[in-house]
Amino acid sequence: MNATAVRERAADLPSDPGVYLFYEGEHVRYVGKAVDLRARVRSYADPRSDRIRRMVDAADRIDVAVTDTETQALLLEANLIKRHQPRYNVRLKDDKSYPLVQLTGHDAPRIEVTRDPDEGATVFGPFTDKSRVETVVKAIRETYGLRGCSDHKYRGRDRPCLDYEMGLCSAPCTGEIDPDSYAEDVRAAVRFFEGETGALADPLRREMEAAAQAQSFERAANLRDRLETVESFHGAGGDAVADPADERTVDVLGAAVEGDRATVARLHSECGQLVDRSRHRLDAPDGEDRVGALLAAFVPQYYADRELPDAVLCSERPDDPEVIAWLETEGVSVRVPGAGREAKLVDLALKNARRRSGGDDAAVRLADELGLDGRIERIEGFDVSHSGGKAVVGSNVCFVDGSAETSAYRRKKLTERNDDYANMRELVRWRAARAVDGTDDRPDPDLLLIDGGDGQLAAARDALAETGWDVPAVALAKADERIVTPDGVHDWPADASHLHLCQRVRDEAHRFAVQYHGTVRDEVSTALDDVPGVGPETRRRLLRRFGSVENVREASVDDLRDVEGVGEKTAAALARRL
């Protein structure tokens, strides 16, 4: 829309409070609130920043919703931003769901780490470090024998399962432990998660000491490491807990802005105890007071559909008076503490906000650009390598939070054929089938990244459809560095962080596939084996240098002599024999 069109639309609007929406086609690109809709919309004829100017230029219409009060406009704006996630707003992206520990509501409760707790379960958390939580849960199972199996495996058993033999479960399913004793063990686990560290640390320490006395030093070392994790489990942030005499519920907000990346960390205290923490990513706002603007955008979006606390402590005061007025009208005290216990809490929140989590920004942007919910935490990359249909192999690499997780890498020999699409279909089908039938112990990824273009992506999607594995997949080809999706092609800027993340995954999948292909290829007997002076190591060097026996055959004697281990006689023999 040009300036004239904006002014004409504004002239038709009332001078009442409300919300306005800029549309581009069917997509909402910007949502704003106004005390006076006519005056506020008219101001967009002369946009205040380059970003807003681009938004106005792209928009083709403006809709409005009139409200009775400014507060209603504030909350409606927050809800519309959360619903439509407009490209040009400072919008809250829900932080990843942190792991919880649940004890199910069964007669013999099951303990497990989950992000989606069952109805009626006793839930503890959220926690920020899943590996630490899993270590603690395993220690609880070994100490108290709580079951971790599904209802399907629990029901109808006539003998205990392998967990019982391994000491991980006391087998309530077959009556190896009576219900009262099992319930007492469950209560011990509850006491630990409620803060009684000794409920788990004391039996672990006794077991560690017994293992040391029995000279089972490896077992004692493992127990020592586990004990350290257990003893530190409840320790974070203990010196910055709010005063019990303060308000019943307090939220502490620390905000950090770095370039176009913004994070708000929230700590939640109830009756003086710090019980929850979370981090939320937003697009950085424009202007000078960026932290104040960030908090002003975050507060109404976050609390529009949540229960308000008694007090909100902020690292800086939100720069929107309407936000402050709304909170105070609802009985919420808003403070920016300068010293004392409250200032410690704010400092802790700021440390959480400034904490870099490798790949967070890129992962969020990637999800946003691909239209996926939440954030992309786990990406698996796939590539195929072969030489003219020989020594065909596939690679399956894994990145978590933007970093390679090499322990989750897998590789596979594939059917020998010179068909990249069929090879990719076989590779992805193998991974998908293992995921569906439960034989792959890795978590499902949030995204599959295929090295290739339309054909490789179609082959991968065929494999997903055949197996019923519901995971989104995209492709990235080296030729033009564009992301191929089922809905079209994304041509992102060369310096985009989310493109760089995809490129790292793609390149690592390619490297891992080529490396494995070289290993498999070198295991195969070739014409080089018949040449005097060419042993296994020299053969590997030749193939690594020239790529195939055919290329070795076409190489000059001088080129052959450049390879380490190939002397004049060997080079002449290669030229003569090949």
TrEMBL record:
Any one GO BP annotation for this protein: nucleotide-excision repair
Subcellular location per the Swiss-Prot or TrEMBL entry: Cytoplasm
Predominant location category: cytoplasm
PROSITE patterns xref list: GIY_YIG, UVR, UVRC
Domain UVR: 198-233
Segments forming domain UvrC family homology region profile: 252-464
Gene3D superfamilies: 5' to 3' exonuclease, C-terminal subdomain, GIY-YIG endonuclease, UVR domain, UvrC, RNAse H endonuclease domain
GO molecular function: DNA binding; excinuclease ABC activity
UniProt family annotation: Belongs to the UvrC family.
HAMAP family per UniProt: UvrC (MF_00203)
Protein name: UvrABC system protein C
Organism this protein belongs to: Haloplanus rubicundus
Gene: uvrC
